[in-house]
Design brief:
single chain, 7-stranded antiparallel β-sheet, globular, 33% helix, Small Protein B, Chain: A, alpha+beta
């Protein structure tokens, strides 16, 4: 099991750069509408969400920029590797996400794609973008915390 996985979950792709580029405010789980060959490709552990983002259009949520390579053993009628994929959220969640992203200027960033009990899900994060100096400051704080933990470990 990958780090952060729970019982019955298997992570397919994660966006580690999102934790560096954004301050994560809240996490939301959403289902993804996929074709059969996309599911097969995901089960093989092949996907990239490094360039992906989520967007609310109309009264629907969409995941754009996620790359799911073609399934090698599939037939000639396969899926497009990069296409908008519909996200499955409750109407109230979509309305709330629209309001929050518009009012507070937050981004919807996919953090990881995973299977839970055989169903493909995406973990979205409501996130605020960091500026360059904030990124450096976050790295410095993380290293200081690590150094303090090391020192405490040596003393005990």
């Amino acid at each position: 099991m990958a780090r952060g996985d729970h019982e019955g979950e298997r992570t397919v792709a994660s966006n580690r750069k999102a934790r560096h580029d954004y301050d994560i405010v809240e996490r939301i789980e959403a289902g993804i509408v996929l074709t059969g060959s996309e599911v097969k490709s995901l089960r093989g552990g092949r996907a990239s969400i490094a360039e992906a983002f989520a967007r609310i259009r109309g009264r629907e949520a969409w995941l754009e920029g996620m790359h799911v390579p073609e399934y090698a053993q599939g037939d000639t009628r396969t899926h497009q590797p990069v296409r908008p994929r519909k996200l499955l959220l409750h109407r109230g969640e979509i309305d709330r996400l629209r309001a929050v992203t518009e009012q507070e200027r937050l981004a919807l960033v996919p953090v990881r794609v995973y299977f839970t009990h055989g169903i493909a899900k995406v973990e979205l994060a409501l996130a605020r973008g960091r500026r360059r100096h904030e990124k450096r400051q976050a790295i410095a704080e993380r290293e200081a915390r690590r150094e303090a933990d090391r020192e405490l470990g040596r003393r005990s």
